[in-house]
Design brief:
By secondary structure, the chain is mainly α. The chain has one domain. 74% of the residues lie in helices and 0% in strands. It has 4 helices and no strands. Helix 1 runs antiparallel to helix 3 (42-76), helix 2 (25-33) packs antiparallel against helix 3 and helix 3 runs antiparallel to helix 4 (82-115). The termini are far apart. The mean pLDDT is 75.
Length: 127
């Protein structure tokens, strides 16, 4: 599990070290609304929330794939040990519940943004 945490931290912070933080949609929205002394408004807030949700779902999808790989590795190297197989199966079950919670949360945010008149698939659609 520590390996998954280390890989997740590397995935989160590597764009900062590579100088790719300007590619991040969140930083683009924040820098875009403060140019030329303009203040951020309601549209910028909605775009920011939408970008954070998209970024978070992508990050969670990457983490779920890594946990799936780790769980498969645990299952394959269990050697028939009942305790290790049970631990791998429990981890897989928790991963599936995490996926279900993520999808439910995304659906809730999608419908809230849709009711506000935003196209939730594109975070810059109302600018």
């Amino acid at each position: 599990m520590k390996l998954v945490a280390v890989i997740a931290l590397i995935a989160v912070f590597s764009p900062i070290y590579a100088g790719a933080d300007t590619v991040n949609p969140v930083s683009n929205i924040l820098s875009g609304c403060t140019l030329a002394g303009a203040s951020c408004g309601w549209v910028d807030l909605i775009n920011l929330i939408n970008a954070i949700v998209h970024y978070g779902v992508q990050l969670i999808a990457i983490l779920l794939v890594l946990v799936l790989l780790y769980t498969g590795f645990m299952y394959l190297t269990s050697g028939g040990d009942v305790g290790k197989v049970k631990k791998a199966r429990d981890m897989l079950t928790k991963m599936m519940w995490g996926l279900a919670y993520t999808l439910c949360g995304w659906i809730i945010v999608y419908f809230i943004l849709k009711s506000l008149g935003v196209d939730p698939f594109f975070y810059d659609s109302i600018i």
